[in-house]
């Protein structure tokens, strides 16, 4: 079965109407573009093999804008659903029942696992669709603009395989697998997803499709140690919470939300990435289980630092209040 038909059947088989890639529509646009390009070749005798035809309507205003919007809708839907799923999994007591009631979600453990599987399948099949249509674009135009567009999408944070919620789902999968291992039931959201250590450095690794492998480095690039109390900035880079506060020039007391918009990510130097940070709670649970001794040592160290910063903060506030 051709991928286009397989993709359409998958999207039509979903219980809810979900955003997706207009694979058939985009292929039709490329087919028309190929016909136009061939006409130009017949008229002018030669076609530049390195770039698209002059004034190509596909490049100028049809193909890429359509795909950009569809990619944005897909990653937005995935992020929202993954966030709700993980929020429900980590909630407890009355808050869990409130989330179930508010979101009209099924609260059973089996339902959570199934929702996780559905989300992973949704992410992967759309990632494949995007790769295939961009490859088709480059083949039609004899260019590398499809690859360039993919790089642009990554810089705009609408590449679904770069989503921080995919990282959290991977950690969720491993946590579930380890929790259920004793009962003999091992739920699988991913195939071949593991926390690995290379020269003592942790990586979250997962084999996805077509030899595509996702490796997420879990070493904080500021303290050069395993991330503790990990957070992801909106640019997608992961740091220890305290290290991120230091990079953003804020105290633990004020928190990352107090960071100035001009503050930049220490790695990619993108500004305004702190306000929308996300605590990676599933990843934190995974690392705490896997690196227990390190986690306890780091917990004691950070606790002392938090107390010190809180003390300095309130002493400063008191001096300001009395005018000293």
TrEMBL record:
The reply on keyword Transferase is yes
Give the matching Pfam families. Answer: zf-C3HC4
* Reaction catalysed by this enzyme: S-ubiquitinyl-[E2 ubiquitin-conjugating enzyme]-L-cysteine + [acceptor protein]-L-lysine = [E2 ubiquitin-conjugating enzyme]-L-cysteine + N(6)-ubiquitinyl-[acceptor protein]-L-lysine
Record pathway: Protein modification; protein ubiquitination
SUPFAM superfamilies listed in its UniProt record: RING/U-box (SSF57850)
Top-rank taxon of the source lineage equals Eukaryota
Q: What class of enzyme is it?
A: transferase
Q: Which UniProt keywords apply?
A: Metal-binding, Transferase, Ubl conjugation pathway, Zinc, Zinc-finger
- EC no.? 2.3.2.27
Every copy of the SPX domain together lies at: 1-151
Tell me which residues make up the RING-type domain: 220-269
What InterPro entries would the database entry show?
BAH1, SPX_dom, Znf_C3HC4_RING-type, Znf_RING, Znf_RING/FYVE/PHD, Znf_RING_CS
Keyword Transferase (UniProt): yes
PANTHER family, A to Z: E3 UBIQUITIN-PROTEIN LIGASE BAH1 (PTHR46764), E3 UBIQUITIN-PROTEIN LIGASE NLA (PTHR46764:SF1)
Please report the name of this protein according to its UniProt entry.
RING-type E3 ubiquitin transferase
Q: Which organism is it from?
A: Hibiscus sabdariffa
């Amino acid at each position: 079965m051709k991928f286009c038909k397989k993709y359409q059947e998958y999207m039509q088989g979903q219980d809810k109407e979900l955003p997706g890639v207009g694979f058939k529509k985009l292929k039709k646009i490329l087919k028309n573009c190929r016909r136009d390009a061939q006409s130009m070749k017949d008229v002018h005798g030669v076609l530049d093999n390195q770039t698209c035809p002059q004034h190509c309507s596909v490049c100028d205003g049809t193909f890429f804008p359509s795909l950009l919007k569809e990619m944005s809708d897909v990653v937005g839907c995935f992020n929202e659903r993954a966030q709700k799923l993980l929020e429900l999994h980590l909630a407890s007591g009355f808050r869990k029942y409130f989330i179930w009631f508010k979101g009209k979600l099924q609260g059973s453990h089996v339902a959570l696992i199934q929702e996780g599987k559905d989300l992973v399948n949704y992410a992967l099949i759309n990632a494949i669709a995007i790769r295939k249509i961009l490859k088709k674009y480059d083949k039609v135009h004899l260019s590398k603009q499809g690859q360039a567009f993919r790089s642009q999408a990554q810089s705009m944070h609408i590449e679904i395989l770069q989503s921080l919620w995919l990282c959290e789902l991977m950690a969720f999968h491993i946590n579930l697998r380890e929790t259920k291992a004793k009962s003999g039931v091992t739920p699988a959201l991913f195939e071949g997803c593991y926390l690995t250590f290379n020269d003592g450095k942790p990586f979250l690794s997962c084999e996805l499709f077509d030899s595509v492998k996702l490796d997420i480095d879990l070493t904080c690039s500021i303290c050069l140690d395993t991330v503790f109390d990990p957070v992801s900035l909106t640019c997608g880079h992961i740091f220890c919470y305290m290290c991120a506060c230091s990079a953003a020039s804020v105290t633990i007391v004020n928190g990352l939300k107090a960071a100035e918009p001009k503050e930049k990510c220490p790695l990619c130097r993108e500004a305004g990435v702190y306000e929308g940070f996300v605590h990676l709670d599933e990843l934190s649970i995974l690392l705490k289980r896997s690196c227990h001794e390190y986690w306890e040592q780091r917990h004691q160290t950070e606790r002392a630092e938090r107390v010190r910063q809180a003390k300095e903060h309130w002493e400063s506030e008191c001096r300001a209040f009395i005018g000293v």
